[in-house]
């Protein structure tokens, strides 16, 4: 059966269509988690004149980064408060330490261009996918892995854009490592997927 995998790592996003133990289509983007972090650094510098380090921007992304607004209803008629986080960096105007609050809306807007590029690439791959495999993907859904898949609402955005079910793997940050371990421990499966190569001297 056909399967679609979206692996959003640190440096690259890998989008692939798999069938019969092989890759039918794939697209690799140099746009992923690191680019999302850089988007927050750029936003802070341009809008507030605040220089953030990579670690601070990464923490902002993890705490309040999102692809879509949260459901405004808390389930009991109450309105959810917008997520905020205090960030600390250096004021570019005077070089002194500076603290301020970022809202979830601001961070979402900063991440939007990068996220939209990833979603557009997913759509591009689907447009090239053979119809019989698209039918399988509609039935079984799109699988997301990698740390970038943990951005809140990203799975929902992909689902709404593709009109297909989307699910995030358990422990997505270690999915590739666990998959490689399983492959190496199964000799029959390894023979099925390995690619032969000739050594040149």
TrEMBL record:
What GO molecular function terms would the record report? Answer: ATP binding
User: What is one term from the GO cellular component aspect held by the record?
Assistant: cytoplasm
Q: Which GO terms describe its biological process?
A: cell morphogenesis; regulation of cell shape
Give the UniProt keywords, A-Z: ATP-binding, Cell shape, Cytoplasm, Nucleotide-binding
Tell me the InterPro entries matching this sequence: ATPase_NBD (IPR043129), MreB (IPR004753), MreB_MamK-like (IPR056546)
Classify the main location. Answer: cytoplasm
Q: Which domain of life is it from?
A: Bacteria
Location of the protein in the cell? Cytoplasm
Task: Cite the Pfam families for this sequence.
Answer: MreB_Mbl
Family, as annotated: Belongs to the FtsA/MreB family.
The name of this protein is Rod shape-determining protein
Organism, by scientific name, is Candidatus Collierbacteria bacterium CG17_big_fil_post_rev_8_21_14_2_50_45_7
């Amino acid at each position: 059966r056909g399967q679609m995998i979206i692996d959003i790592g640190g440096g690259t996003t890998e989008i692939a269509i798999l069938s019969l133990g092989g890759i039918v289509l794939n697209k690799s983007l140099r746009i992923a988690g690191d680019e999302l972090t850089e988007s927050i650094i750029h936003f802070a510098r341009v809008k507030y004149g605040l220089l953030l380090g990579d670690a601070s921007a990464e923490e902002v992304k993890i705490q309040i980064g999102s692809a879509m607004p949260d459901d405004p209803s808390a389930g009991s008629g109450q309105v959810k408060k917008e997520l905020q986080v205090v960030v600390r960096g250096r004021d570019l105007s005077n070089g002194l330490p500076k603290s301020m609050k970022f809202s979830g809306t601001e961070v979402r807007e900063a991440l939007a261009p990068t996220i939209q590029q990833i979603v557009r690439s997913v759509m591009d791959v689907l447009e090239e996918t053979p119809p019989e495999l698209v039918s399988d993907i509609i039935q079984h859904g799109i699988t997301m892995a990698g740390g970038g898949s943990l951005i809140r609402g990203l799975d929902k955005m992909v689902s709404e854009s593709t009109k297909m079910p989307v699910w995030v793997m358990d422990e997505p940050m270690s999915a590739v490592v666990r998959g490689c371990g399983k492959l190496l421990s199964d000799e029959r499966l390894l023979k099925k997927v390995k690619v032969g190569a000739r050594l040149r001297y």
